[in-house]
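step 4 of 6: structure.
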Amino acid sequence: MSEIRLGGIKVIEKRAYLYSSCRRGTDLLGNICSTLAAGRINLGLLTHVADNGLGESITAASAKSAPSFSGYMLGAAGSDKCKTAEIASDISRISIFPHNQRPEITGSVIKILGAAAIKPYGFGSSPSAVTVVISSSDFETAMERLFNSFAFPACGSYSEWQAVCRMDEHQLSEVKCSYSEQIITIYGFTRQTGLDLWNVSLPIEYMSGFGAFLSEMGELGFKLPFLISNSAPGAGGIHFSFALGEERRDRVGQVFNKHLPGRDSFCRGPVSVLFLHGPHFGDRYGIADAFVTALRNGGIPILALSCAVSSISAVIAGNDPDKAIEVLNTRFQTPGGDRR
Amino acid sequence: MGKYVLIVDDDPDMVETVGMMLESKGYEVGKAYDGIEGEESIRKRRPDLLVLDVMMPRKNGYVLCAELKKNKATKGIPIILLTAVGEAVPATTYSHADGMATEAEDYIPKPVDAQVLIESIERLVD
């Protein structure tokens, strides 16, 4: 595998990860977001798919520690709506950037993990970064393999990263302050239309084939503005939701069948991806809840969602996200707009 | 080709957002993700303006700013410091006073108001 030059790698270690699933149509996302917001718990990562193609909705989140999710787990235990709710208590999140929407970058990460027999708990994407969640016991192997396959300007190797960058990463990952706003200030919205949302569920041993599929998508010039993945901690399968341009849907299907023959994929289009940019969303509780609640109150279903790094990426139906932006403007303020 | 602006910030989404903002205004944009990388990038190509975050690994923005302003070769590069150390944030290890004490040409609190940033850049590079 040839080395790909990237801008950087960020790591958050020793965190917890919640995986929860339910029947399609249950508001699992809203439940998780509101419970965590009420507990003033910062979300480092949140992913969601409303329908994985098999009638299930999956939501996953990462926060500081397992007790962060105790409120949600208590509610889930007393509810017949939740099908699965599991917590992995010692995970690490690794983000590499910038991906520039190149599918081959995410594809390479997936292939690297597959070759090392590391099962990712999940993936999230932001406009600049791809984030993978793994067990902390797999951290060293994953980092060594990533440094062998990607070139980062700050550190040439994993050992150099340990010596030079790890302490800084620890210091910067501690939340030293938080914004306190009545109306949440953001940098702004961007959008991408003319996309399909694909859903694929695979046994874990097929993961490398999926990575190869994404790599070929990159060679064919496709852009990958959105990808999430979820896998229950104790299970042997993995689910991917991703967006690709709808104009070459047939070609996507052909390449998918070439790398993953006989596996089912579910395509829905057209969809749009709406990006809400920063600042510091990982350090601020209640952001995801405000976003999800605003869209729900506006009658706009979220097909898939990724809150990662400092952005929120949401997949919504159709090619016109203006109504969604209008609804979100009631809850978020873009600088330059009306002042408080 | 427009003026060359280098953005140095360890938040990759922030770099992406500000980069898009500036590219849409016709600027050529360079990107670096920490202070050391920013320093190396400046050595390779002198920017017409530097947009610099404060809280970064390896070398923070205050230190880089001070070093550039002490160096004859880089003293003339206009610097805009972008920081979460502002009115919306309580005191942190990076104080507002430290920011004001730098020789940076401008000091803009996050979240960045696009219009304020563009006006500041235009004022400093034109």
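step 5 of 6: annotate
 - Residues 184-333 of chain A form a domain with the VC0802-like fold (CATH 3.30.2130.10).
 - The longest strand of chain A covers residues 8-23.
step 6 of 6: archive
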